[in-house]
Amino acid sequence: MLTVILLVILSPLIGWVIYWYYKVHYFEKYLHKIPGPKRLPLTGNALDIPSTLTMLPVLMDYYKQFRTNFKIYIGAQPYLFLTEPKDLEFVMIRRLYWRNPIYTSSSQRWLGFGLLTSGGNQWRKHRKIITPAFHFQILEEFIEVFNSQADVLVKKLKEESKKGTIDIYPFIARCTLDIICETAMGTSVNAQDDYDSEYVKCVNILLEIAMLRSFSPILRSVLYPFTSMCRRENSALKVVHDYTKSVIASRKQQFLSDADRNVESSDSLGRKRRRAFLDVLLEYSKTDPSFTEDHIREEVDTFMFEGHDTTATSITFALQAIARHPEIQKKVYEELQTVFADDPNRKATYRDLQEMKYLEMVIKESLRIYTTVPLLGRRIEKDVEWNGMTLPKGLMITMFVYCAQNSDSTFKDPAVFDPGRFNAENSKGRHPYAYVPFSAGARNCIGQKFAMFEMKATMSSILRNLELLPPVPDHKIALKNDGVLKSDNGVLIRLKMR
């Protein structure tokens, strides 16, 4: 009886050991020439990265040790981290990979197989459907929304300026959520009036869990459904999915009502309603039954996340950088005074945003140092020849964009915040894949122009009304990688009325 019990207990462990040994042995036949840190049996290098807060420092330490591409193992699964621009280009321009940026099933439970997580023919079909929603003529119509929501944000921040030091991220996140709902989804949710937004909280929870799972063999195993983390994820998923379903239902009701009456969609004042991203999906679903309700929800979940959270962190880090560099803030403000010389109080136009050249350089430098998505992933679908060796099917490739953009091999004094890096003269001769904050190649960010205009409109509105100052006492940001770069201890600044 005791023997049977011992066999029942030990059999899974023995199976795990055998599986680990043969899988690592298989991959090492191909990867043995690539440097990497010493790994432990069964867990690999997973114990080196216990949290999302330690992830980037540990990975950067590996890079400093090897000064080139390197590999790590999470359990028996190898990850090849690419740090050189030429190697990022090699991966980004090819179509031999399935994209899975957060590496785990968590992303699919949340986003399904939307534009961010799908691959192959489905990705190409959906990209083709969605592309018209980001035509420059449509983007120009969104400027009004950027301005109106920025006005609400400025009003909130003026009230907060009386309190001294504040964490600016929650205010920016609620603003970008309002913007994406009104522009891309065609519905208003008034998130800026909800100081305790459950949606924003739950998105942050899902991102953190996804990254924790990607670097933990235990959390990626069959044991995960029995953990408290899984229960926490399920609760967050319900909130996020219910939120997006309500957004879809609101717009669909208006869309079907207008279609039944055979009229152009219009608002309460009789003005032609903007054609939203969600309208494009609803229109297409009427002509192609294979584009289902689930496909619509997956794409909406994807754009709700990408359109609010990534932009929110990008704006937040750029504002704190400006607050810490008064000479840069002065130049930005002088440029805005020139752009709005005819009327300092008028709203920004499409042309105004195009003329904000120095502000754009500031944003680009912030995106370099505070890389919005530090890691981009691919899973190889078939063996690939690379640098004189074979990369085997099943290998996970991680494009370490944060490292590439903060490496002294490409950027002199990379820790120094210098917007001048992105003027025409200094950009000459730089490898085109040394700076890829919106990815690159066929799978580049479809909303990058949208995001840049939104960032310019929001930041210019803030800076025309408020002076940004560093917190007292000084506050050192604790960067963490939750799939999207965040600060674990907030982003604190002080605000002063102009």
From TrEMBL:
Heme binds at C445. GO terms for molecular function: heme binding; iron ion binding; monooxygenase activity; oxidoreductase activity, acting on paired donors, with incorporation or reduction of molecular oxygen. Pfam families: p450 (PF00067). Keywords: Endoplasmic reticulum, Heme, Iron, Metal-binding, Microsome, Monooxygenase, Oxidoreductase. It is found in: Endoplasmic reticulum membrane; Microsome membrane. Its main location: endoplasmic reticulum. Gene3D superfamilies: Cytochrome P450. InterPro entries: Cyt_P450, Cyt_P450_CS, Cyt_P450_E_grp-I, Cyt_P450_sf, Cytochrome_P450_Monoox. Its cofactor is heme. PANTHER family: CYTOCHROME P450 4AE1-RELATED, CYTOCHROME P450 FAMILY 4. Belongs to the cytochrome P450 family. This is Ubiquitous cytochrome P450. It comes from Phyllopertha diversa (Pale-brown chafer beetle).
